[in-house]
Design goal:
With 193 residues, this protein is α+β, with helices and mostly antiparallel strands. Helices cover 37% and strands 24% of the residues.
Length: 193
Amino acid sequence: MKKKNLDPEIINTVETLGTVPRYVLQHNAISRSAQKFSAEAKKVIAMAMCLLPKDLSSRTASFTYADFCKALGLKKGGDSFRAFKLAIDECMKNPIGIEIVDEKTGKKTWENYVWFTKSVLDEETGIATMTLSHELVGAIQELKEVYSQINLKDLGALQSKHALRTFEIAMSYKSLQGKGGNTNDAWYFERNY
């Protein structure tokens, strides 16, 4: 059996955390970004992101298919592993567009990035290793630090990409709860598509 070499950049795995993650701390600009991912691919992205440090000092995360299913409350099985594999492939192909607003002029531009520059899925062990794009990390680090905490099991329960995107966007406005006429247990937002 060939010994697996893990990237020394990996600092967060389920083993190093000591527990299966329950939440992803997602930048609101990511939640509100333009992207076309399946629900399964968004779940893979969330799993990878929740394993990275908030300051993104490490860009590589590693997790097993079993830990992915456990964190998101999904059932393991042949079809779901194939969907997991396809989702990892999809994460490597589709771009994410982030709206950048110049604070001085108010001018809006959209910058497009790839999520990951490398992914490896060992089908024998079920271990996925994904490296976040250096350019995307730079863009995220330049944005104001405004994040939403999203429960992974809530993401796991959503089946359609439209439901998942609506949920992500809604959670990015949760900071409006109790402000601007909103009650303490509700928030209102409008989005034009």
